[in-house]
Design brief:
The chain is an alpha/beta fold and about 120 residues long. It has helices at about 15-25, 55-60, 70-80, 85, and strands at about 10-15, 30-35, 40-45, 45-50, 65, 95, 100-105, 115-120. The strands form 2 sheets. A 4-stranded mixed β-sheet has the order 1-4-3-2. A 4-stranded mixed β-sheet has the order 5-8-7-6. A hairpin with a 5-residue loop joins strand 7 (about 100-105) and strand 8 (about 115-120). The chain is globular and about 50 Å long.
Length: about 120
């Protein structure tokens, strides 16, 4: 029996699917496939399904974590693309976390919280 997983994807809620698609495109993701209820969104080997799901309370409780090679470059990209103003979202600053990562928070238009992070070098 081969029980090796190939991939796991989250269904990320979008209260306004078209606005969310534009948001993720502006972040540098690509939308490989879409219809009026679902979009396959990816950046390199990372992907998720963006789902038209109008449940604002649920979206505000939903979190995603994106592990990247350089969090400072990602933050600079988000700032230079003017994501906060263009989409009316909140963008935090990179901070070192006690769990061994440097990350910043970013909310998408539906209120989904993203933590974009990189691993910090291990001491010792």
């Amino acid at each position: 029996m081969n029980l090796d997983p190939v991939e796991i994807k989250a269904f990320v809620p979008a209260t306004d699917l078209e606005l969310s698609r534009r948001f993720y495109l502006a972040l540098g993701f690509e939308v490989s496939w879409t219809d009026d209820r679902l979009a396959y969104v990816r950046h390199g080997h990372a992907s998720f399904l963006l789902q038209a799901f109008d449940a604002p309370a649920f979206a505000r409780q939903f979190q995603m974590h994106l592990l990247v090679a350089d969090v400072s470059d990602w933050h600079a990209h988000v700032v230079s693309a003017d994501i906060a103003r263009r989409f009316g979202v909140s963008v935090g600053r990179p901070e070192d976390r006690p769990w061994g990562m440097r990350d910043f928070v970013l909310f998408d238009p539906a209120g989904v919280l993203w933590r974009i992070a990189q691993n910090l070098p291990q001491a010792g």
